[in-house]
Amino acid sequence: MVQDKNQNSEKENAVEQQNQTADAELSFEGKTEEADKIIKNSVYGAAGIGLVPIPWVDFVGLTAIQIKMLHSLSKVYGVEFSESRGKAVITSLVSGYLPIALVQPIASFIKSIPLVGQLTGAVTMSILGGATTYAIGRVFNLHFAAGGTFWDLDANKMRAYFEEQFEEGKKVTSQARKKTTAA
Question: Which UniProt keywords are given for this protein, alphabetically ordered (predicted)?
Answer without folding.
Answer: Membrane, Transmembrane, Transmembrane helix
